[in-house]
């Protein structure tokens, strides 16, 4: 799934300027959350999208003779509702898609999009890594091979999701594709950083 | 029930608000997108859906 884990990265691209990479620091992996993590929100929005249709059905039953008269106001109301719903969905997608994890040759950078015009960048030096745990739980996560990555650190912990707090001293990232492979890559990079060689 | 001026002014104000929020989201997309990611296709799809809602509602309103 190349769109989820990207290896071929041009570090000199201006898009990476905000990461303030150190000289000679290479981006090894760019990882986005797995799309299955967005299914819940998509389901809610689809259910909300069906609501006006049910309302029209109910209005038609209750005020059959008045439906023609109510039509202009219903059209305006539904138009506004669907425009709001599409904007809400797009905002949710930006929150989901722009949460990105960069694994570089020196650090793990967790960029968390937190609503409109708010971003949080947490970084963890690979030297601080003490233990990496991949958690895959439940049918969906097992089927699509995604899950949580918990990096135990010497410093203070952080998480990418305010509703699912991480543990103190743990760097927790939710819904990542192939977390076992990511854990192996991080452990290997940690070994290279601490022992000074591949 | 014909649309009175208050409803139309309210709808126009709502459309301006939606436009401003979408412009902020577009700004965010163009500022933070990475090369080769899915941002632009999704942005185009979002625009197409928004325009579809606006055009269809305008056509339906003009017929009532």
Structure, described:
The complex is a heterodimer of chains A (about 200) and B (about 60). Chain A is an alpha+beta fold. Chain A has two domains: about 5-35 and about 100-195, Roll (PH-domain like); about 40-95. Chain A is built from four helices and nine strands, in the order E-E-H-H-E-E-E-E-H-E-E-E-H. Chain A has helices spanning about 40-60, 65-95, 140-145, 180-195; strands at about 5, 25-30, 100-105, 105-115, 120-125, 130-135, 145-155, 160, 170-175. In chain A, the strands form two sheets. A five-stranded antiparallel β-sheet of chain A has the order 1-2-3-4-5. A four-stranded mixed β-sheet of chain A has the order 6-7-9-8. In chain A, helix 1 (about 40-60) packs antiparallel against helix 2. The mean pLDDT of chain A is about 85. With about 60 residues, chain B is an all-alpha fold. Chain B contains two helices and no strands. Chain B starts with a helix and ends with a helix. Chain B is elongated. Chain B has helices spanning about 5-30, 40-64. The interface of A and B includes residues 15, 30, 75 and 119 of A.
How would you describe this structure in keywords?
heterodimer; A: 198 residues; alpha+beta; PH-domain like; 5-stranded antiparallel β-sheet; 4-stranded mixed β-sheet; 9 strands; B: 64 residues; mainly alpha; elongated
Distance between the termini of chain B: 10 Å
Helix content of chain A: 25-40%
Strand-pairing-aware structural class of chain B: mainly alpha
Query: How much of the sequence of chain A is in beta strands?
Result: 25-35%
Ranges of chain A where pLDDT stays below 50 over 5 or more residues in a row are: none
Shape estimate of chain A: elongated
What is the typical, i.e. mean, pLDDT of chain A? 83
Amino- and carboxy-terminal Cα gap of chain A:
26 Å
Largest interface: A-B, 35 and 32 residues
CATH class of the largest domain in chain A: Mainly Beta
Into how many domains do the coordinates of chain A divide?
A: 2
Spatial order of the strands forming the largest sheet of chain A: 1-2-3-4-5
Instruction: State the total count of DSSP E strands of chain A.
Output: 9
- Please give the CATH architecture of the largest domain in chain A: Roll
Radius of gyration of chain A: 22 Å
Largest sheet of chain B: none
Write down the overall mean pLDDT of chain B: 90
- So what's the oligomer here? heterodimer
Number of domains of chain B: 1
Major sheet attributes of chain A = 5 strands, antiparallel
Order of helical and strand elements of chain A: EEHHEEEEHEEEH
């Amino acid at each position: 799934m190349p769109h989820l884990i990207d290896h071929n990265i041009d570090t000199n691209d201006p898009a990476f300027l905000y990461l303030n990479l150190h000289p000679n620091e290479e981006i090894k992996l760019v990882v986005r959350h797995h799309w299955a993590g967005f299914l819940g929100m998509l389901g809610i929005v689809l259910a909300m999208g069906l609501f006006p249709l049910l309302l029209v059905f109910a209005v038609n039953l209750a005020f059959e003779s008045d439906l023609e008269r109510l039509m202009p106001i219903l059209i305006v109301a539904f138009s506004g509702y669907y425009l709001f719903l599409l904007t809400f969905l797009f905002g949710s997608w930006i929150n989901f898609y722009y949460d990105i994890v960069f694994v570089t040759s020196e650090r793990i950078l967790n960029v968390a999009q937190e609503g409109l015009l708010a971003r949080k960048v947490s970084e963890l030096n690979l030297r601080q890594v003490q233990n990496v745990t991949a958690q895959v739980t439940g049918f969906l996560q097992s089927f699509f091979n995604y899950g949580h990555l918990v990096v135990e650190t010497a410093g203070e912990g952080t998480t990418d999701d305010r509703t699912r707090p991480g543990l103190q001293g743990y760097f927790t990232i939710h819904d990542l594709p192939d977390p076992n492979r990511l854990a192996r890559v991080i452990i290997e990079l940690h070994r290279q950083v601490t022992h000074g060689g591949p | 029930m014909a649309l009175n001026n208050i409803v139309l002014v309210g709808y126009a104000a709502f459309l301006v608000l939606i436009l401003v929020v979408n412009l902020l989201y577009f700004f965010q997309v163009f500022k933070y997108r990475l090369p080769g990611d899915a941002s632009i296709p999704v942005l185009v799809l979002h625009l197409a859906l928004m325009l579809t809602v606006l055009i269809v509602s305008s056509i339906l309103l003009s017929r009532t």
